[in-house]
Amino acid sequence: HDMADDRTDMILEIPSNFERDLIRENTASVSLNANAINATKAGLGMGYAQNIIRDFNASLSEEHGSSTALPSSINVTYSNWYNPRLDYKTFMVPGILGEIVALIICFLTALNIVREREIGTIEQLNVTPVQKWQFILGKLLPLWLLSLVMMTLGLTVGKLVFDIPMLGSLGLVFGYTAIFTPCMLGLGFLISNFSDSQQQAMFTAWFFLIVFILMCGLFTPVSSMPDWAQVLNKINPVAYFVEFMRLVLLKGAGFEDIKTNFLTVLGYAITTNALAVWTYKKRV
């Protein structure tokens, strides 16, 4: 259960008859199970574990080299869970899908309102009786639908080109995407509210996105980061999406497994969009 919840990277299983086999039959076996959803981490862990077992064999041989009743070696069998072939694409593609959706949607939203302001059409919208939340909803809804189209295309390419496993529910994937996208839409709109030009909005959005991308766990496991970085990652929406995609597609996680993740992202979406509505000023 710990390995399924991504709290354990490797399990060393020593059978109950280990010592008996070691003494009587001159050989004994142990089992190593590696969580290979991250192929790099699994490979390193297996290498370290096998070195430890080899050193143990060597010390036995040196200590009891003259005895015929002691083993010459211990056999190790191992299996890799969730990514049996240690295929790097299997680990990367699900995370990249979430990253691409977040990147494009946030950029498009950040540039949307600023462009209206630059060409002067925002004043025409501001003098209409449309309320602020209605105006923002009308701006964000097309981009929200676009994110679902992007996810559809990404999953299709991932399956047909990279043959990534899809063990979980695709309905859950699209449902989560529908909740996650408002996080990035709200963030982009919030940036747009405080920007005077498209260039300013683009650089501000890129500043936040580059931090989100580098710390989301796509390239470096979050568990390997310093404690302060792991705490800071609690407000990184992209990290939640990358984690979700890997849990559902590679491990077949259900809603109960990602419920905390889901509720956190939902709270993030409500907060960012509420701030976007609150900070938008209808003025000429």
Protein traits:
single chain; about 280 residues; mainly alpha; 3-stranded mixed β-sheet; 3 strands; elongated
Can you give me a brief rundown of this structure?
This protein has helices spanning 18-24, 39-63, 88-119, 122-126, 132-162, 170-193, 198-215, 227-232, 237-251, 255-279; strands at 10-13, 27-35, 73-81. By secondary structure, the protein is mainly α.
Question: What would your notes on this structure say?
Answer:
The protein is mainly alpha-helical and 284 residues long. Helix content is 66%, strand content 8%. It contains 10 helices and 3 strands. The protein has helices at residues 18-24, 39-63, 88-119, 122-126, 132-162, 170-193, 198-215, 227-232, 237-251, 255-279; strands spanning 10-13, 27-35, 73-81. The protein has a 3-stranded mixed β-sheet with strand order 1-2-3. Strand 2 (27-35), helix 2 (39-63) and strand 3 (73-81) form a beta-alpha-beta unit. Helix 5 packs across helix 6 and helix 6 (170-193) packs antiparallel against helix 9. It is elongated and about 90 Å long.
What's the SSE blueprint?
Blueprint: E1 10-13, H1 18-24, E2 27-35, H2 39-63, E3 73-81, H3 88-119, H4 122-126, H5 132-162, H6 170-193, H7 198-215, H8 227-232, H9 237-251, H10 255-279
Parallel strand pairs: 2-3
Antiparallel strand pairs: 1-2
Helix pairs in contact: 3-5, 3-6, 3-7, 3-9, 5-6, 6-9, 6-10, 9-10
